Amino acid sequence: MAEQTTPNEEIFDATEQDEISTVERCLTFQSGDLILYISTRHVIEILNNYSITNLPLVPPYIKGIINLRGQVLPVVDIQMRMGKCEAECGTETCIIVLDIDSVSLGIIVDSVRQVIDIDLNNVQPIPLKRQQKLLDGMVTMEDGSVFMSVDCQALIKAQY
């Protein structure tokens, strides 16, 4: 005999699925005085102590290239891309390797923090977006800290 559901059960299931689909698993990281996040679906790996080969005739925010298991990847200093000073290398500085719409690249960040779930319904637009083209949203966490979302499309356009 087939299992029957009442209309109320179906509504509950649909509502529960909608709530689940608005939550995105994100990697948070520090860049200068900002806490940024990016969806983990774009994150391939995190590299520590990696040698970057400098390139001539590229924008200053492109720090060079790395050879990752035979694949050549451009590396972007995300702070410089946002119009700030060059990132200083510290003990926690690392490269986050990303794949965005089949474009692979690395971004230099001060430190990786943690992976968290962010409800996309809570993400607010950033005021003065015209001045900040690399960030596309912000969310205030329960502890009052503000995390900013990296605009992945702007990031991959930035390298060319």
Biggest sheet features = 5 strands, mixed
**Tally of helical runs:** 3
Radius of gyration: 19 Å
Quick one: how many beta strands?
10
Strand order of the largest sheet: 8-1-2-10-9
What structural category characterises the helix and strand content? Answer: alpha+beta
- Encode the helix/strand succession as letters: HEEEEEHEEEEEH
User: Mean pLDDT score, rounded?
Assistant: 83
What percent of the residues sit in helical stretches (DSSP H or I)? Answer: 10-25%
Q: What spatial form do the alpha-carbon principal axes imply?
A: globular
Q: Give the N-terminus to C-terminus distance in angstroms.
A: 61 Å
Keywords, please?
five-stranded mixed β-sheet; alpha+beta; single chain; about 160 residues
Give a description of the structure.
There is one protein chain. By secondary structure, this protein is an alpha+beta fold. It has helices at residues 7-21, 78-81, 152-158; strands at 23-31, 34-39, 43-48, 62-68, 71-77, 94-100, 103-109, 111-119, 135-140, 146-150. The chain has 3 helices and 10 strands. The strands form 2 sheets. Strands 8-1-2-10-9 form a 5-stranded mixed sheet. A 5-stranded mixed sheet has the order 3-6-7-5-4. It starts with 6 loop residues before the first helix and ends with a helix.
